[in-house]
Amino acid sequence: MKKLLGITLGIMTALGGFVDLGQIVFTTQAGALFGYRLLWAIVLGTVAIIVYMEMCGRVAVVAQEPVFAVVRTRLGPKLGLATLIASNLLNLLTCAAEVGGLAIGVHLLTGWPERTVLVGVSALLGVLIFVLSFQWIERLFGLSGLLMIVFAISAYTLHPNWRELVAGLSPTWHPSGRNQILLYLYFAVGIFSAMLMEYEVHFYSSGAMEEDWKPEDLSENLMVASLGSLLGSLLTVGLMVLGVILFLPHGIFPEQLSTAVFAGSFPFGQRVLTIAIVGTLACIGGAAVETALSGAYNVCQFFNWPWGKNLPARSVPIYTATWIGMLVLGTVIAFSGVRPLQLINISIIFGMAIMPLTYYPILRAAADEKLMGRHVNTKGNTAVGMFFLALIVVAAIAAFPLMLLTHSGRP
Question: N or C: which end of the chain has fewer CB within 10 A?
Fold first, then answer.
């Protein structure tokens, strides 16, 4: 039972990372524009995050070094500090977008004014984080986020073209026209980036230490990383299928969270719509919690200050003040009227640009025999990690120019 409950860490990490506000709309848009032709980007991103989540979990367990302790050690104080600032700016933007997305979802469910809801959901998140232990936070958001499975069920019920879906596993399509090519590349980079958002590994490695995993739990580490990521990937594929079936034939480009959520209940009606909205709220809320806590983890781990959700708040004052500050500032940004999806578009591309500075130190630490002993990377692990790191670097270089050239993915 303990191992089964431990999987909720992977579920929450994956659902909060894969199926957050940006991925829900972004992947549906990709399906509406390109059919199944970007399915390969989901598969590539899934394998990459499994590889790196397993590595960062193993480093945290064996060496007792979470991600930002590794960043400080491997990049040095100056570059490490720059990475800390950039990563927490990314966490703040993402947290603001997710809180704004929560307000939209609750408004859809209740009809209450969005700004009033925004303050209320932020306060509720703060209370839940403060009151609940780390284990109960991951169980609450991880298990309630499973309601998102309704999107995959809806996609299956609508009878996708399986031959075209399987063909989408190969990136062999050649778009016609410069604008189509640029859009295709933008969405490929965006989907890949959204599945590797840095806060996933920040939260996951810290969670492994919060749960006091030992080297004998490393098989659980691989299982948690794999099952959680595969579930998140399945739901992401479901979102793409819904975009293909419901929007592509009619030339509709879904630009609102509400449009994507309604697609999740299309075959079933009102009752399932409520389930779809609640599942969406759980995933978006999980992402908001992950980014707020990740900001606090990052600061304390970099400066070697006490941290931990399971410790009394007074014994970790900087950690507590930082996650509260992240949540408050995120709420202020969302309250200013900036559209959540605009923030998400910026955060996805910005996240891609700084991603190598997170994943390179993880790979180096996992491959360090002095640090890891008999749990060091195999040659195969390191080779696969280097392959994905090379893809991350290429995508990081391409991300910002593609955003400018496509006007953030506008068809």
Answer: N
